[in-house]
Amino acid sequence: MNNQEIEVKMEIKDEAQIENIREFLQENKDQSWQRIDMKAIYYDTEDNFYQKHKIAYRVRCENDCIVATYKSGKVNSDGLFERVEINKKVTKLTPDINVFAEDKDIWSLIKTTKDKKFLPIVITDFVRECIELTWLDSKLEVALDLGFVQGRENKAPICEVEIELKQGKIEDLLSLKDELIKKFGLQISAISKYKKGLILSRTNLMSCFFIIFLKNNKKGRIYKIYIEFVILSNENVTNFIYLRSFYKKRSCVNLFNLNFIKCTTIVKIVKFL
């Protein structure tokens, strides 16, 4: 099994585009669409060992199959995820990391948690429609995911496209990404479903759509922006927060890296508004 996963994720902001996206991809298909019901639980120890080591550990039902997965890696400025992914078929949804004992590269790190208590921290429940296709010189798998992610009592919708490189060149994957963005106005996502769930679990105030006005100093233009996620806690913001900006009836989405801003600062901004 290939343990390297290379993919991009894009948010579908207009669900009316889903059928158009499906039809466009159908023209380049190598096989028919496959439907998979995905129900996953992400686990961590009481001391947050996996979060501290930037590891996602989940157990997921995929139709009639149950799969335990270890993931770790990075995402770059183009929204390209490059991660180690190790999957093991299991028989139950409860956590048991001993299934990874034969994978020496990761077992040396996670074996210290084999006797610890695991807690469910994020839940995802969505339907995946996936298809393999040829784009330029590469084999790609494209998935349409519709459902929700939950962290504690907070939920957020999942409505996204994933493109995974199965064989070929990263440049071809990025080419299809650019084509879908151009045709259907998709938004690059640098946040995984798991990371969204973590944001939800740490958020005390959800569905907060605060409108603020920012002035562009160079051109003097006024941008209206609303915040989709605001994290109200005392820890540093280590995630990307989506800001959707509107100007002259044109919608574009930007990612702002707010690592250097504390959540308490954001709270003050919200109160000021």
Q: What would you note in describing this structure?
A:
The protein is an alpha+beta fold. The protein folds into 2 domains: 4-197, Hypothetical Protein Pfu-838710-001; 202-272, no CATH class. It has 6 helices and 13 strands. The strands form 2 sheets. An 8-stranded antiparallel barrel has the order 1-5-4-3-2-6-7-8. The chain has a 4-stranded antiparallel sheet with strand order 10-11-12-13, with no helix packed on it. A hairpin with a 2-residue loop joins strand 7 (138-151) and strand 8 (154-167). The longest helix has 15 residues, at 170-184. The chain is globular. Mean pLDDT is 78; it is low at 204-273.
List keywords for this structure.
single chain, 273 residues, alpha+beta, Hypothetical Protein Pfu-838710-001, 2 domains, 8-stranded antiparallel barrel, 4-stranded antiparallel beta sheet, 6 helices, 13 strands, globular, disordered C terminus
